């Protein structure tokens, strides 16, 4: 709409009773005023959604369809096997990569933060802060040597996501991980959204020249700070540091995808990091949501819900209790959960064969040997402190 066009109705304005002044001869609390209040709430909600760039097309006042025959793991399996499930979104956190031996950043004992003291950082997370990096990139690149992709094999969970894609069911895979194991597992690039960025590409912080993973690997493993070939700028992997925006692709895909989603699978994430954690609220109100994780997560307003202050389908995270009509938790190891799901879907042997063949291929290509020695045999240990 151009700025000089005549006043036109928009979503933000009250869509009824143009010729009636607000509240004219109408007692508060009447049906009319309640309808108007509700419309106002909806209008504000739509306005905020538009302003924030999220187009929420759900009608909160419409009755919500219950699509699962039973709100259980088997109910979810039946839904995925059915005709109406065509657009699955997967959300993944560190839990899908831990069995590959990728260190957990935040674990207090084995996690990387715990092992960063030798770098004299003002605080552990400074190693991922853009301001600190600009002043002193060396600690990050020493750490990057440990985290560098290519030294780890994708897990059963990664190959399960690839199977979802090959079955034509994967709308998109959103990952918080920066380990590039999704790419390593052969999931099509256009199906992946790396919400926290990736090691796969890098850019000069000054002139924005792009660099390949090979360039970075050579520099990092020879203990050099990667410097741009065109200017004196430092080259930084495109992982999102504290103080940086999420990738534009994340915003773009979120707007396109979530209202189309008819099955959300959250894997190996504690859903504590925003805005990733709020994505669970962006699917339609009826859309089933399955959590595959070691413990329950994402119940942001658990107490409010328990007190009856918010209803079953209000935005506010997952509802993992007896009242749930669409949320299911499959607690336990992520790989076990994915294999279990594949088995029940009838794809179990296919998944086992895919994992075995791909792991054999990666091993034969010889790209998996860590600079610190051969990869350990299964099960991989947590990243030992002495390597840092
Ligand atoms: Zn440059």
From TrEMBL:
Record flagged with keyword Nucleotide-binding: no
Spans through the membrane: none
UniProtKB keywords: Metal-binding, NAD, Transferase, Zinc
Annotated residues for binding of Zn(2+): 204, 207, 228, 231
Region (Disordered): 1-34, 362-388
Domain Deacetylase sirtuin-type positions: 66-348
CC cofactor: Zn(2+)
Pfam family, one: SIR2
Listed PROSITE patterns: SIRTUIN
Transcription regulation among keywords: no
Composition-biased stretches (Pro residues): 373-388
Reaction it catalyzes: N(6)-tetradecanoyl-L-lysyl-[protein] + NAD(+) + H2O = 2''-O-tetradecanoyl-ADP-D-ribose + nicotinamide + L-lysyl-[protein]; N(6)-hexadecanoyl-L-lysyl-[protein] + NAD(+) + H2O = 2''-O-hexadecanoyl-ADP-D-ribose + nicotinamide + L-lysyl-[protein]
GO cellular component annotations of the record: nucleus
One MF annotation (Gene Ontology) recorded for this entry: NAD-dependent protein demyristoylase activity
Catalytic site: 196
Protein name per its UniProtKB record: NAD-dependent protein deacetylase sirtuin-2
Organism ancestry: Eukaryota, Metazoa, Ecdysozoa, Arthropoda, Hexapoda
Gene giving rise to this polypeptide: sirt2
